[in-house]
Here is the input.
Amino acid sequence: MSTPIIPQIFAAFGGLSKLAEAVVCNPSTVHTWTTAKKGIPRWWRPLIVEAGYKLGVPLTTEMLDYLDPGRFIKPPKGYAEQIASSYPDSPGYQATDTSKAAADAIAPSAPLKREVVLKAVKAAGTRGITPDETAAKTGLNILTVRPRFTELKMAGKITDSGARRKNGNGKNAIVWIAA
Here is the structure.
């Protein structure tokens, strides 16, 4: 039982195969979402949103959480333009008032914090560094650090080293290096 939103998402990415490529998985995995009772599994949703930013497809995790057509929300007017015109140079935000308020609040200090994170990545050299390690090294809150990594990745200033190390929760985390 495919939810009506899933074909719209496939179309926005240019098809099922293009979406699979964008989130780095097999097309067969993406195809299973068309028959899954609850549609796209939650753990894939942030990856889809991130891939959307890269490709200019304005999605939010909130949009993907709404599975039936009556609850599907469109982003507010101007949302796509805001994301396309300023992200990653300015903090991005989801299609909620609280997310926008948080982005507005961090905007004045985001460039400096982004620079602190970039310096930590560069200082780590080829060993690389995870967001959790960066938070510990710099004294910045992890919730401040993680978005800066996304911004730096989107700006092409850092890249995934291919290595993984455990984070504070015992999960594997990407080890980032300077691009």
About this structure: The radius of gyration is 17 Å. Residues 5-74 form a domain with the 434 Repressor (Amino-terminal Domain) fold (CATH 1.10.260).
